Amino acid sequence: ESAVTETASPDKQPDLTGQAKKTIQTKGNVVIFAMDGSDIAINALKWYASKCHRPEDVVVLVYAVEMSEIFTSAQWLQTPNTEDIDAFQTIFRHEIEKIQKKLQTFTKVLRQLEINGSVRSTHACKPGEGIINVAKELNATMIVTGSRGHGKLRRTLLGSVSDYLIHHADIPVLVCRHQSFN
Predict the structure, then answer these.
(1) Mean of the per-residue pLDDT values for the chain?
(2) Which of these, 34, 36, 43, 49, is most buried using a 10 Å CB contact count?
(3) How many angstroms separate the CA atoms of 77 and 81, rounded?
(4) Distance CA 96, CA 102 (A)
(5) Which helix (H) or strand (E) holds 25?
(6) Where are the beta strands (DSSP E) in 3-111?
């Protein structure tokens, strides 16, 4: 199960409280874009903006934070007393601040590309699971993601968000391979 929080919109200041509307009204499509902030994801977004995006579409950038990232933070592992609640709260606040900074950066990218949309984070055990949950919640018509182009062995060992999305989403998934950005 994952929790979804809307955190920013390109036409207003970020809402970091999670109290923003979850309903999207548009005459176009609601497109979910899996965003991790990598060059591959940014280039995929630029490719989507130039080749596929229509002004009436709404894009929701979804940053999937793996819960394991938060709880295996190097800071947490180096805490002398793992039962120290204050240390845990400090580390957790620091992780939230890092996530919020990334989301604010993603909002700027949407603004630069003049794309109508918002930025959300989702916290899930598997990033693909969180992205699909947001897509279902918003009744999205398509999911777009970049692909690092790893070989079959590496994908098998490490997993792949794009593979997960392709095999588990109930809506079309557009995978932008890194070679196609040129």
Answers:
(1) 78
(2) 34
(3) 10
(4) 10
(5) none
(6) 3-8, 30-34, 58-66
d(CA 17, CA 174): 31
Question: What pTM did the predictor assign?
Answer: 0.75
Give the position of tokens 């933070």: 73
The letter for the amino acid at 110 is L
φ and ψ at residue 137, rounded to 5 degrees: -60, -40
Helix (H, G, I), strand (E, B) or coil at 154: helix
Residue at token pair 């890092």: 98
What amino acid is encoded at 50 in this protein?
A: S
Distance between alpha carbon 155 and the CA centroid of its chain, in Å?
Answer: 19
Give all strands of the β-sheet with 142-147 in edge-to-edge order. Answer: 3-8, 117-124, 58-66, 30-34, 142-147, 173-177
Question: What pairs with residue 58 in β-bridges?
Answer: 30
Q: Which amino acid is at 177?
A: R
